[in-house]
Amino acid sequence: MPAQGTQPKKRKAVTRTTDSIAAIKKEKFGYTEARHLLLRAGFGGTDEQIRTLAKWGPEKAVDHLVDYDQIPGQAATADAFKSDIIRPLSREERQRVNRARQTGDEDTLAQYRTERQRRQREDRRQMREIQRDWLTRMVQTPKPLEEKMTLFWHGHFATSFRIVEDSYHMYAQNRMLRGNAMGNFGSLLRGIIRDPAMLRYLNNNQNRKDSPNENLGRELLELFSLGEGNYTERDIKEAARTLTGFTYEDDSFRFNKTQHDQGMKYVLGVQGNIDGNSLVSAILNQEACALFICFKLYKFFVRDIPMDLSALDMGTRKAILQLAQLFRANNYEIKPVMRKLLLSRHFYDPINMGTKIKSPSELLIGSVRSLKVPVRDIGIMYDAMELMGQSLFMPPSVKGWDGGRSWINTSTMFVRQNTLIYLLTGALPTRPLFMKDQQNFDAMALVPSLNTPDDSDPSDEQIVRELASLTIGDADDETIGSVIRGSIGEGTMQDQDAVVRALVMLTSMPGYQLC
Amino acid sequence: MSNHLNPSDVKAYTRREFVKSSALFASAALTVPAFVQSSAFALPRPMMGLSSIAGVDEDKILVVVQLSGGNDGLNTLVPFGDDAYQRVRPRIALQANEILALERNGGLGLHGAMGGFKELYDEGMCAIVQGVGYPNPNRSHFASMDIWHTADTTGTGDGWLGKYVDSQCCGYGSGTPGSKNTANQDPPPPPIAIGKTAPLALHGRTMMPVAIEKADMYQWTGDKLGDDLKDEYHKLIKANDEAAQHEGAEDNHSFLVRTAMDAQVSSKKIRQAVDEQSLVQYPNSSLASQLSMIASMIRAGLPTRVFYVSHGSFDTHANQGGLQGTHARLLQQVSDAVGAFYKDLKAQGNEGRVLTSCFSEFGRRVGQNGSGGTDHGTAAPMFLFGPMVKPGLHARYPSLTNLDNGDLKYTVDFRQVYAEILDGWLSAKSSDVLGRGYKHLRVLKKS
């Protein structure tokens, strides 16, 4: 059973790490490593799933996660959502509105206003459905890395419904990101500068040759591809010019030729009458691009580090540089980099195991998937994620979610603990109905020793140790003793209520916030 | 590469810093966590007089009151003497006998329902900035709110008060990527929003704002699920915290232990504070209870420097009324709540520590619409309260005839007020926070 590496409390800051991105040896890949892989490249898993991956060994386990397109999965919900709730006025409607404005026909104007407000309400309702749809997908998917990668790109190409105000565009973007999540980064960049939601979010629909809007051009270089300091202000201005006329009509990209600046441009060392496509090529030619994306992948999947090579220990620096080199050598294909990373000895270095603060989605989706608690109410789950600071489709800014310690303060700590208590028991802070709502939760099934064919009686300590290894990893005697005292009640630990109480306490421990 | 600090480098959370800064007050530090106690200077203590101790600004507090939905500025600070006003608002214009005239300002007054504001005005505790807006006004609620929150006309980026916190603890704000070398002080405690979630304005890079909807929800649910569970959990967290403190560890686990401990102690403290009877009677509105919660926290000596509340909805598209009606009711709620808040602060002796700023994402159009309401507009007045303000009217009232497509032309950029608040009250460097310098609107007394 686990697990060194899952008890970060005792660990001092490690300054030397395994630098090698060579593959971990089969004999070094045990339960702890398989658990780590599943937590990071997915949302964690059950004891059985972890054992299966451990048995398969690193190559097969990583292949299974990375080659997810081999797994038959949920069919694309192609037209599950309405595309025309928010739609532009027809020519006829526009004319009517204009006439009403000129003649001061307030009744007609009020009628259109009411209709618009109705549509906006309807659209916000659909947005909530789409948000829940994605959460449900994360909970159920047989290809967890697909959703994890999609979430990574959503945070990378952060776009918010608050500004886009068109749920279908948000949904379409999500599909585009999912479709390319493990594909080619160049295709993603080319997709994002044609994506209606992004074009609206960063005002590129207002980027015209006579009055350029630099918003998309700037973020494309600063946040999406190169990182600060790897371009000049002139590059930004010129990049914006290449993107003039990149707009959308209804639900599709439209290149508005009359608004496109056809003049000579000079951007990132490339000269000519170039447009957004060639801009992307120029970006991909920069070494900084591969490095920047590898940094972000590393931060998301491995460890929260400063985006600055000189601030890193030697091992981490070498690992990231090697990944960046691989990324370029493979023409920005994402899969080889992810495969290398997840297989690398560096990925399983103790400094990288059990030390990362879970994002709200990792915490909640991971709990549902590994503890098999019932979702109960996907709406409450979504609201809880919002309270924890991660509202899907509504990142706080174009910079996405910072992650790491920025997730945590006293109020989010309570929300994190209390949401777990809700999932385990159905109790809410204002409505503590402990033990009233457990029809769907078989807590006893989580204890291996209660589910073995032999009829030996596990001790209370054995039961709590097994629950601990499932949640916080190895625990010291003090913790085990305390959990027993806190949960055992009048009887023994071989009791559903006692096991649930133990899980309440264990998932409330700070260690449960780490993966 | 981005210069954003890695959160794990943030001084805010390191055990070593904590131990160092609390060494002088070791006995207190072992029992009172960082959330509750910022430094020895901020121990609960009513301030004498109106101003704080020279050179020590740790006790200055900013409260932001957001009027959500777009408050109709014209029927708030009413130019009742202006013919143009009466002409374009036949159904909803207020008459001379329906307003609270402001001394020496013929033709201008507060809506008749705003007795609370008027009282503060007469006491020299209210500054009104007229015609506040920004270039190329956006009439979408979300977009314009984001613009006010980020202090950026694209509405993207971090919140202005989040950037303020960042600039205080880590040496960088919006425009100037800093380095750890410029970090010069302990970080301020995170801002507190009263509500389900914290607004964008409070979001920065280094710490999440705290959101408290109700004191009884700011609590571990496990407390209610059995005494053994409750006792053992709290004991275990405390033991973990002591162990981590003893080791001086600075890793993520210690950070989480510290936060869980902070949460435990501050939850108790806040629930106790809120349970205590206020020194004055508050009116019955959600804004009033939010402000009374803040007053209780201030009274209990929480070191929080920025609080945020919102009230709405001011989106009065139809039948907004005049002296009576929807808009009047909203204005009365705000005005009475703020009035009671300052009475409470005065009774505590804390009014000199608290600056309150009240804004809305936009005003409304000059003319009424066909439904006896008003549609989304542009510039509107902003209100500031507290004995540190220069009382009276500031800037110019926008012309009601020289309009931009039926809308008022703003006379003051809201960031000029932010700059004044940042530099003059919060002792920050406004150009770091706002990305550039703005001409201050001198609405605060020189400290």
Describe the structure using short key phrases.
heterodimer, A: 515 residues, mainly alpha, 3 domains, 22 helices, B: 447 residues, alpha/beta, Alkaline Phosphatase, subunit A, 9-stranded mixed beta sheet, 3-stranded antiparallel beta sheet, 12 helices, elongated
List the helices and strands and how they pair.
The complex is a heterodimer of chains A (515) and B (447).
Chain A (H helix, E strand, L loop, with lengths): L30 H10 L6 H10 L1 H9 L24 H13 L2 H35 L3 H13 L4 H4 L2 H14 L4 H8 L3 H6 L13 H11 L7 H10 L3 E4 L2 E4 L9 E3 L2 E3 L3 H9 L2 H15 L12 H16 L4 H10 L16 H12 L6 H10 L22 H16 L34 H12 L5 H11 L8 H13 L7
Antiparallel strand pairs in A: 1-2, 3-4
Helix pairs in contact in A: 1-2, 3-16, 4-5, 5-8, 5-17, 6-8, 8-9, 11-12, 14-15, 15-16, 17-19, 19-22, 20-21, 20-22, 21-22
Chain B lengths: L14 H8 L3 H6 L29 E7 L9 E2 L4 H6 L10 E3 L7 E3 L3 H8 L3 E8 L7 H10 L9 H11 L21 E3 L15 E3 L14 H21 L4 H24 L10 H14 L6 E6 L14 H23 L5 E7 L19 E6 L6 E3 L17 E2 H11 L5 H5 L13
Parallel strand pairs in B: 1-8, 1-9, 5-11, 5-12, 6-7, 6-8
Antiparallel strand pairs in B: 2-4, 3-4, 5-10, 9-10
Helix pairs in contact in B: 4-10, 7-8, 9-10
* CATH architect. name of the domain at 56-219 and 288-434 in chain B: 3-Layer(aba) Sandwich
- Strand-residue proportion of chain B: 5-15%
Distance between the termini of chain A: 17 Å
Q: What's the overall geometry of chain B? A: elongated
Q: What order do the strands of the largest sheet of chain A run in, or round the barrel if closed? A: 1-2
Largest sheet of chain A: 2 strands, antiparallel
Number of strands of chain B: 12
What is the residue-averaged pLDDT of chain A? Answer: 91
Low-pLDDT residue intervals, each spanning 5 or more residues of chain A? 1-14
**What shape does the CA trace of chain A take?**
globular
User: Any low-confidence stretches of chain B, pLDDT <50, length ≥5?
Assistant: 1-57, 171-185
The CATH class label of the domain at 56-219 and 288-434 in chain B is: Alpha Beta
